[in-house]
Amino acid sequence: MKKLLALILALCFAVCAAACSSAKSPLSSGGEGSLDVSGESEPDSSIEEDAPAPVNVGEGVAHKLRELRFYLPEAFIAAEGNAQTGPQRYSTEVTDNGVAAGTVITAMAHEIAVSAESGEGSEAAAFDLSDYVKNDSNASVARVDMSPVTINETTWYIGEWKASGHATTYIYGEHNNVVYEFIIDKQNEYYSAAISMLKETLWFA
Predict the structure, then answer these.
(1) What b/e readout covers 55-74, taking b as 16+ CB neighbours within 10 angstroms?
(2) Is 72 helix (H, G, I), strand (E, B) or coil?
(3) pLDDT at 124
(4) What is the pTM of this model?
(5) Which sign does the torsion angle of CA 204, 155, 183, 195 carry?
(6) Which segments within 13-99 are labelled E, that is strand?
(7) DSSP 3-state assignment of 75?
(8) Is residue 127 within 8 Å of residue 177, measured between CB atoms?
């Protein structure tokens, strides 16, 4: 009888131990289904107020150029003369004389010259963005190799020029007979952040 009672107590102890270990499972209950293999909770980033903020390409400030919408990191300052129809300038620094400095972005919108119809039933030649980028753009003058990429269902052409530690990225798109152009000149860490954010957020309203 004593052996049976000891066996029952041992069995109860084993069941209780198993229940406790399962209650301490590292599987997150926050709805993400993430597994914390370290067994330690993630630090609260709001507590680390003294730590320097990293360049975050997931957040930014909305801007508008005609029908184009895009975001840039908060570090970029819009020039006072910017208008929604362009040209526009954004920079991470402004000198005492009001000159844009740091990483500088120039955004422009160019009307496409469409030839008039010459006869009944005839149509004007379709605009070829790739031909424009290759032969008539600022990127073509700098002899930059441009590659097509799809951003929010629209084809854009992007290329980078590098020399002696300096870099410039060119971005071109077209919408409703208007060519949109970005020229991004590198001077600091926001250069890559701005390009990454533009690649994620360029879209036409």
Answers:
(1) eebeebeebebbebebbbbe
(2) strand
(3) 54
(4) 0.68
(5) positive
(6) 61-65, 68-72, 77-78, 88-94
(7) coil
(8) yes
